[in-house]
Design goal:
Layout (H helix, E strand, L loop, with lengths): L9 E2 L2 H10 L13 E9 L7 E9 L6 E10 L10 E7 L3 E7 L4 H11 L6 E2 L10 E5 L8 E7 L6 E9 L8 E6 L1 E2 L5 H11 L8 E9 L9 E10 L5 E2 H11 L4 H21 L7 H21 L7 H13 L17 E4 L3 E4 L10 H4 L5 H22 L6 H19 L7 H22 L5 H17 L2
Helix pairs in contact: 4-9, 5-10, 6-7, 6-11, 7-11, 9-10, 9-11, 11-12
């Protein structure tokens, strides 16, 4: 069934139906307001049974300072979808077909099945405005590292996603053995290749077991936001193997803190896994010699982070000279070559997979940074500093719920073990670059100050206490 006859009238229209619903979705970036939408482009998938309309809309929200493009897959049904009330966008009256129930496509099993078929190059994307016309601007690509044949039994959407939507496919292989997959739908679109796809794809193709095996992607070329803008290109979705029943390192670490258990073995293994990924990324993707301009820009962003943090917590002004001195030390320190890194590395981005060890996820980088910035080579020490801060947060979160008790010994032991594991596998100890290691940890802690002050003030002491400790460390090691 063609999605909805283009010449027919709809009441309400799609753009009238979407805004209120979009404003309630976790992936909608402009919290607290209703979007002002303009249709940018669309494409379709065909339901083999001819019963459900499947359309992916690209809409521009023009209600903010800068326009933002969102990907919104929709399904159209002539009766309610059982068990999917939570995914209902609304209903519309169609002048030819009558009442239509409109759903968020990610939650519709027909859309999920056709999306997986598309990724595996078993379905053909269709033009949004013409019937029986393939859409060449949408390009599926089955990844060369994925050779398994799969049969889909069902699908579900993971809860808890913030900026994207992840659909889990319940698949089995040709022998009936479970072969679960997961597909990430990018909701906010920017032009350029998504680093989550680029980095995990390169690592997967190189045979790394430290990332999930890549299954495939969907990319597209769509019109620019403004009339005189060139066409945009980027990834719409990508699928990879899924590890059900596994725990992320954050949960494992929290349980260890609470039980007072030794975590140094796991932390050391995590350090080695991190170094393994950094080493391979530097081998399979381009590296860039650091320039004076790159150093100046990086440290300028650190200084800006201090200004933002001090505006949220004026008491930090007492540390201004010490913080400035640490950033000055970083400017004058030797910098390694720049390479691709994770970019938003913490305990929640790592899974403990039986018989495989630590597996790294979500190489998308900090989602609030522009895609062009997240795709640039960076320093591996940024990831190292991020994980050290994450250990501190694990201890700090336990201390929040146990006033008067300390997890400092656990944190210090885990951090040191992580660095030991990293140094042994990487061939160079990050502690040899103390000026950079402390500067990047301090930068991360200042970022956390701003976040906690604005979103979770009861946790603000975790990063503010960390700032004081890092400055004490710097006095011993640097100043």
């Amino acid at each position: 069934m063609a999605e909805i006859h283009q010449t027919a009238s709809l009441s309400p229209t799609k753009l009238e139906l979407l805004p209120v619903w979009m404003s309630t979705q976790r992936w909608y970036a402009a919290k607290g307001r209703v979007p002002r939408l303009r249709r940018l482009w669309s494409w379709r998938l065909d339901d083999p049974a001819g019963e459900v309309g499947i359309e992916t809309l690209l809409v521009v929200d023009e209600g903010g300072v800068e326009p933002v493009v969102y990907q919104v897959p929709l399904t159209y049904r002539d009766a309610p979808l059982e068990g999917a009330r939570h995914a209902l966008v609304g209903t519309m009256e169609h002048s030819v077909l009558g009442r239509r129930w409109v759903y968020d496509g990610a939650h519709d099993p027909v859309y999920a099945a056709q999306l997986l078929a598309l990724i595996l190059e078993q379905a053909t994307p269709q033009a949004g405005t013409e019937s029986d016309t393939p859409e060449p601007a949408v390009v599926p690509a089955r990844h060369p590292s994925w050779t398994a044949e799969t049969h889909l039994r069902g699908s579900k959407v993971l809860s808890g996603e913030q900026s994207n939507t992840s659909v889990v496919f319940d698949c089995v292989d040709s022998n009936g053995a479970p072969k679960p997959l997961i597909c990430k739908l990018f909701r906010t679109l920017q032009t350029g290749e998504n680093p989550d796809v680029t980095l995990q794809g390169a690592l997967s193709e190189a045979g790394s077991t430290r990332v999930p095996t890549m299954v495939g992607t969907v990319s597209a070329t769509w019109p620019g936001i403004r009339e005189d803008d060139p066409p945009a290109y980027g990834h719409l979705a990508f699928a990879q193997e899924f590890f059900p029943g596994t725990e992320d390192a954050w949960r494992v670490a929290l349980r260890s803190v609470a039980a007072g258990e030794d975590f140094t073995g796991q932390a050391k293994a995590l350090g080695a896994a991190t170094a393994e990924v950094h080493t391979l990324l530097a081998q399979v993707l381009p590296t860039v010699p650091v320039s004076a301009e790159a150093i100046a820009a990086t440290v300028a962003s650190m200084r800006g982070r201090y200004v933002s943090a001090a505006s949220e917590v004026p008491a930090l002004a007492a540390y201004e000279r010490q913080i400035a001195a640490i950033f000055d030390q970083a400017v004058n320190a030797p910098w390694p070559v720049l390479q691709r890194v994770h970019g938003d590395y913490h305990l929640g981005q790592v899974l403990h997979v039986p018989e495989r060890g630590w597996v790294l996820l979500d190489f998308e980088g900090e989602p609030l940074r522009p895609l062009a910035e997240r795709s640039q080579p960076d320093l591996a020490v940024r990831d190292v500093a991020g994980m050290l801060r994450s250990f501190d947060y694990a201890g700090g979160s336990w201390e929040q719920s146990h006033p008067g008790q300390s997890a400092r010994a656990w944190v210090a032991a885990a951090q040191h073990a992580f660095l030991d594991g990293y140094a042994a596998a990487y061939g160079r100890d990050p502690r040899q670059d103390a000026a950079l290691l402390i500067a990047f940890q301090l930068d991360k802690a200042l970022y956390e100050v701003v976040y906690e002050a604005r979103n979770r003030p009861t946790w603000l002491t975790i990063p503010t206490d960390a700032v004081a400790r890092l400055l004490d460390d710097a006095r011993k090691d640097l100043l």
